UniProtKB/TrEMBL annotation:
Keyword Ribonucleoprotein among record annotations: no
Pfam families in the record: Cation_efflux (PF01545)
GO terms for MF: monoatomic cation transmembrane transporter activity
UniProt record similarity statement: Belongs to the cation diffusion facilitator (CDF) transporter (TC 2.A.4) family. SLC30A subfamily.
Organism in which the protein naturally occurs: Platysternon megacephalum
NCBIfam families reported in the protein's UniProt record: CDF
Transmembrane segments: 6-30, 77-97, 109-127, 162-186, 192-213
Membrane topology of this protein: Multi-pass membrane protein
Protein's name in the database: 5-aminolevulinate synthase
Keyword Transport among UniProt keywords: yes
GO-annotated biological processes: zinc ion transport
Localisation: Membrane
Main location, first listed in the record: membrane
Length: 317
């Protein structure tokens, strides 16, 4: 996935959430609706999350140093994990606390500004829908026929999955808030407002948990997508004219969304000199880089003698 596509989705979501957060806070101060407060804090947390994603993308572009010789690509994973923590604490737990408080001390929405929450929520649904549409458009360019669940679980770039889940949660949260506010206005019972707030809190906690699991997996280190690894392995072996007899094993690890560490052992057909070995390694490396396309490879190839007891792939693959 291109970093540019993820950045466009993040920026679109940032501007939408900043505007929505301001209007929701205004609506809360006019009506003291707990659903509006929960949604305002939710939008504020989302805005902070998008700033974290943008900062992580910038930090990941730093050049390698003597201490961090493989670069800083995993910074994007780190900030994606921080986003899940912010969404859980600032969004989910705050909404659940506010729901508990309002359930114990319900207050109806009264006064001349009763219509403001409804207007704000309807406008916010329109703005969030536009942001969600941008995220869907950017994701469709790289989804490659995968289901949305497969795309979120399999993506090596954190930005689009994070924005997709945040925007989906935001739209559902707005519907929950509209539900709570509408029933509070119709019945005069402020506990419906608390119910809407609680639904928002549960939703945000669940989304944060999904994000945390996915970002943890990326932080620990994931191998290349099976198709990508298969293409690289096929390229290392090459055609009948190459001097590679067979691949002994391959290990891959994403050190960033667009950076892949590749370590492989292969058996050679023949080697009469060190120059033959070097030429074979260089040719295999060039073929692997060409097969990886836009993916940057940090590649280590080692010729060895093939033994049937040495497996090509690690256990579990």
């Amino acid at each position: 996935m291109s970093a540019e596509g993820g950045t466009r989705a993040v920026v679109a979501a940032l501007f939408a959430n900043l505007g929505i957060a301001i209007t929701k806070f205004v609506a809360y101060f006019l009506t003291l609706s707990s659903s509006m407060l929960a949604e305002a804090v939710h939008s504020l947390a989302d805005s902070g999350n998008q700033l974290l994603l943008l900062w992580g993308g910038k930090a990941a572009k730093r050049a390698p140093t003597a201490k961090h010789q493989f670069g800083f690509g995993s910074e994007r994973y780190l900030y994606g994990f921080v986003v899940s923590i912010v969404l859980f604490t600032v969004g989910g737990l705050f909404a659940l606390y506010e729901a508990s408080h309002k359930w114990s001390h319900p207050e109806p929405i009264v006064g001349q500004w009763w219509w403001v929450p409804l207007a704000v929520l309807i406008v916010a649904i329109g703005l969030e829908s536009r942001s969600f549409a941008v995220a869907i458009k950017e994701s469709n360019q790289v989804r490659q026929g995968r289901s949305w669940g497969e795309f979120i679980r399999g993506s090596k770039s954190p930005e689009l999955p994070v924005i997709l889940l945040e925007d989906a949660a935001a739209l559902c949260g707005l519907v929950f808030a509209l539900f709570g506010v509408s029933l509070t206005l119709l019945t005069g019972d402020g506990r419906w407002d608390a119910v809407g707030t609680a639904l928002i809190g549960v939703l945000l906690v669940l989304v944060a948990a999904v994000l945390a699991v996915e970002m943890k997996s990326l932080l620990i280190g994931e191998s290349a997508d099976p198709l990508v690894q298969e293409n690289i392995e096929r390229a290392i072996v090459g055609d009948a004219s190459s001097n590679v007899e067979r691949l002994i094993f391959t290990r891959t690890l994403h050190i960033g969304p667009d950076e892949l560490l590749v370590a492989a052992k292969f058996a050679m057909k023949q080697a009469h000199s060190a120059q033959d070995v070097a030429d074979t390694i260089n040719a295999a490396e060039q073929r692997a880089r060409a097969a990886a396309g836009a993916m940057h490879l940090v590649i280590f190839l080692e010729p060895d003698v093939y033994h049937p007891s040495v497996t090509k792939t690690p256990p579990g693959r």
